[in-house]
């Protein structure tokens, strides 16, 4: 009888141990199946975490590659700037204008006073005439011959003491300055866009009498708008273009690094 009791106790312990092992195995299987089982409610969270980690890694890698390319461009721009400093061009003694150059702007302003008049010249970056004029008449004042030449656009404003001003739109080439148009501006004139669109700016400059056109060229030359000045400004604007490009690269790099 004692022997039978021992057998029953042993059997009970074995059964209890078997149940414990079965539960442990089930827990292990269920935990490992979280990743493999696509129907698991935790599966989306696991996938999103892996995708986010991969996406972040790829973004950082692409950003680093871009920064390396920008650094290479900055190095080249610095070298070009050093060469330009060695070849620094100074204005001739008869350069009559004060230069206003603001970093980050694509234009430079020249100012001077001439016999009570205020002369203001807005100089833009160099480019070919095709970049500034979409439609060029092949028979218009030889412009077809200069379509591919490098030039700088100018807006010259001559203002009297009364506030009345004459505005010239010009294109400066190495050997000459072309007047593209001119308009008379009144100080009391409304500055609204609608008024500007309705205002009469005068006839096309090339339609004016030849003597009148020549007289206007002399008018500008007397006020300092002549090839010696525009040639200097061409070199100046080329250097400014390099400086602005370098500044743009630095700003671009700062953005990528943030």
TrEMBL record:
<feature type="compositionally biased region" description="Acidic residues">
    <location>
        <begin position="131"/>
        <end position="140"/>
    </location>
</feature>
<dbReference type="InterPro" id="IPR036561">
    <property type="entry name" value="MAM33_sf"/>
</dbReference>
<dbReference type="GO" id="GO:0005759">
    <property type="term" value="C:mitochondrial matrix"/>
</dbReference>
<protein>
    <recommendedName>
        <fullName>Mitochondrial glycoprotein family protein</fullName>
    </recommendedName>
</protein>
<dbReference type="Pfam" id="PF02330">
    <property type="entry name" value="MAM33"/>
</dbReference>
<feature type="region of interest" description="Disordered">
    <location>
        <begin position="125"/>
        <end position="147"/>
    </location>
</feature>
<dbReference type="InterPro" id="IPR003428">
    <property type="entry name" value="MAM33"/>
</dbReference>
């Amino acid at each position: 009888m004692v022997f039978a009791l021992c057998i029953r106790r042993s059997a009970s312990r074995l059964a209890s141990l078997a149940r414990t092992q079965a539960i442990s195995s089930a827990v292990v299987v269920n935990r490992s199946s979280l990743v493999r089982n696509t129907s698991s409610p935790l599966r989306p969270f696991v996938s999103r975490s892996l995708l986010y980690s991969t996406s972040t890694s790829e973004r950082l890698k692409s950003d680093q590659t871009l920064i390396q390319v920008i650094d290479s461009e900055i190095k080249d721009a610095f070298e070009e700037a050093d060469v330009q400093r060695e070849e620094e061009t100074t204005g001739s003694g008869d350069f009559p204008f004060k230069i206003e150059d603001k970093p980050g702007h694509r234009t430079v302003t020249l100012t001077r006073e001439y016999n009570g008049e205020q002369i203001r010249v807005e100089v833009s970056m160099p480019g070919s005439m095709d970049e500034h004029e979409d439609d060029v008449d092949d028979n218009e004042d030889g412009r077809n011959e200069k379509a591919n030449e490098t030039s700088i656009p100018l807006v010259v404003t001559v203002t009297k003491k009364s506030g009345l001003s004459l505005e010239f739109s010009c294109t400066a080439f190495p050997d000459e300055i072309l007047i593209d148009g001119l308009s008379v501006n009144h100080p009391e004139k409304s500055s609204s866009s609608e008024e500007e669109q309705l205002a009469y700016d005068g006839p096309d400059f090339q339609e004016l009498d030849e003597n009148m056109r020549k007289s206007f060229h002399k008018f500008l030359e007397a006020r300092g708008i002549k090839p010696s000045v525009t040639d200097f400004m061409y070199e100046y604007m080329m250097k400014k273009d390099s400086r602005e490009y370098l500044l743009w690269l630095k700003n671009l790099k700062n953005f990528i690094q943030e």
